[in-house]
Amino acid sequence: GAIPLIAIKMTAYKVGDEYALTFVKIIDELTRGLVDDDEPLAEPTDRAYWESQKGTKASVSVVDMLLNIIKEIEPKASLKYNKHYIGLEVNNAAMNFVSFVPRKQQQPHTIMNFRMWQSPEIEEIIETAGFEQLAYDNQFRYYRIRVSRNEIEKQKDALLQLTRLAYEAYRK
Q1: In terms of DSSP H, where are the helices of the chain?
Q2: pLDDT for 44-59, tens place per residue?
Q3: Which of 14, 23, 66, 128 has its CA 20 to 30 A from that of 96?
Q4: How far apart are CA 122 and CA 131, in angstroms?
């Protein structure tokens, strides 16, 4: 759900020795739904869709390995399969501080998205770890990196650090 928001502009006028007030409603908004306003509509799918249509069993297994890292920070996190990405949910509510897009290519990998504001410190963590960084997504505020099975083992500390930063940014 959401919190209804109504904004009223009040203007005071002096007419002779008297004062008058006018009130104008400038915002009257009530948004409902489970998807964040700035996220695309999430069309539900299932694991089989990702293993056969968008990715492969091997690339989806990379997501499973990354979920184990996420569970060190948010133990209740589980995967939520959507048409355009695999997100996270906690207690049946979307919590997409991290999301995934498994790829269908020869080397199994996934694109891991960390939702947080762009900063030089985060870019340094990504660069130092040696991840292939894709263009920052300004619309959805995502850092995007390519992660393969081998990199998970080698760069677990960097993945934990990035996940923790995204989790803290999401909860603010």
Answers
A1: 47-49, 57-70, 120-129, 149-154, 156-171
A2: 789 999 999 989 999 9
A3: 128
A4: 12
